[in-house]
Amino acid sequence: MNFADKFIYSSNPLVTRIRNIKFLRNLYLRYFKKFDGKIIIYPTLVCNLNCPYCVNKFHGSIHKFDTLPGEEWVKIINKEQRDVILTGGEPTLHKDFLKIINGINSGINIKLYTNFNWTDEFLKKYIKEIKKPMTFYASYHTSSGNPEKFFHVFDKLRASGKFKGSVHTVCPELGEARRLKRLFAKKGIKLAIDDDQYHMFDGCSKKFKKKVNCAKKVFLIAPDGTRFRCVSYMLRNKQPLEDLKVSRLSNPLFSDTCYEYGYCSPCDLLGEINITELKK
Ligand code: SF4
Ligand code: SF4
How close is the Cα of 214 to the center of ligand 2, in Å? Predict the structure, then answer.
């Protein structure tokens, strides 16, 4: 994690208090949070959990994208030669997930967001077949039930030497957060507690709808290989940008008028974003 990520994801109580001072947070988002050059890929928006706070449900339904096969993803990622973050949905549910990971050139770093709600069959295949190291950003969601299954997957990966990364959960209730931290600590797992992103970003408050110029530097790629300016637009298949099946990524900066500030996705806090309010 770079310094900016550490600040935004830290569960240290002092950092949380500083981050929650609106003025400081806005200052940070506007001037210090920088584009990291990585490509954020959603191989699938399908998930095997149904968390009440899931940001993908923010606009109600999600557009049903076609899903690119593994070989197309490998071609696209290796052509771009940029580090990738795989997220979703649950990215491991992509039918060619293992092929994608093994096909990516060794110089490209991979970070995987996963809920570890894996079947035993997938876990065995993963341990046996994966050739390439990657960094996990593993989330425990209480919607998956008690954490025994999560521990099972984690333990097997750790024992096989294939776990590198961090474990976190979203838990707004302090008492429950402490209980979970203790439970995970007994298994030798350091559990970070994330703030609910809905509380961190005014742009997703649904309290207003403002006309703004939104300048965002991010590479966000939908399951069909199309780039979008932000998560909120992607979930609704609104204003698609480059289609990576036929063209290369262009400038990471996309800057244009948007009439929907206030209804951004909570995930639009991520990436470099600069909002300027415009007169109606
Ligand atoms: S695991 Fe993630 S993508 Fe799946 S429902 Fe929960 S928050 Fe949403
Ligand atoms: S919805 Fe939010 S993040 Fe997306 S373009 Fe509009 S202002 Fe920017």
Answer: 6
In a domain, 6, yes or no: no
Q: Which ligand is nearest to the CA of 275?
A: 2
For residue range 17-35, list pLDDT tens digits in order.
Answer: 665 565 566 666 666 678 8
Write the pLDDT tens digit of every residue in 134-170.
999 999 999 999 999 999 999 999 999 999 999 999 8
Three-class secondary structure assignment of the chain: CCHHHHHHHCCCHHHHHHHCCHHHHHHHHHHHCCCCCCEEECCCCCCCCCCCCCHHHCCCCCCCCCCCCHHHHHHHHHHHCCCEEECCCCHHHCCCHHHHHHHCCCCCCEEEEECCCCCHHHHHHHHHHCCCCCEEEEEECHHHCCCHHHHHHHHHHHHCCCCCEEEEEECCCHHHHHHHHHHHHHCCCCEEEECCHHHCCHHHCCCCCEEEEEEEECEEECCCCEEECCHHHHHCCCCCCCECCCCCCCCCEEEEEEEEECCCCHHHHCCEEEEEECCC
Is 212 part of any domain? no
- How many structural domains compose the chain? 1
What residues does ligand 2 touch, defined as CB less than 6 Å away? 203, 212, 214, 216, 229-230, 232-233, 258, 260-261, 264, 268, 275
Q: Which residues line ligand 1 (CB under 6 A)?
A: 47, 49-51, 54, 56, 88-90, 115, 141
Instruction: Using most ligand atoms within 8 A of CB, pick from 57, 90, 142, 170 the residue to mutate for ligand 1.
Output: 90
Task: Please check whether residue 182 lies inside any domain of the structure.
Answer: yes
Q: Is residue 189 part of a domain?
A: yes
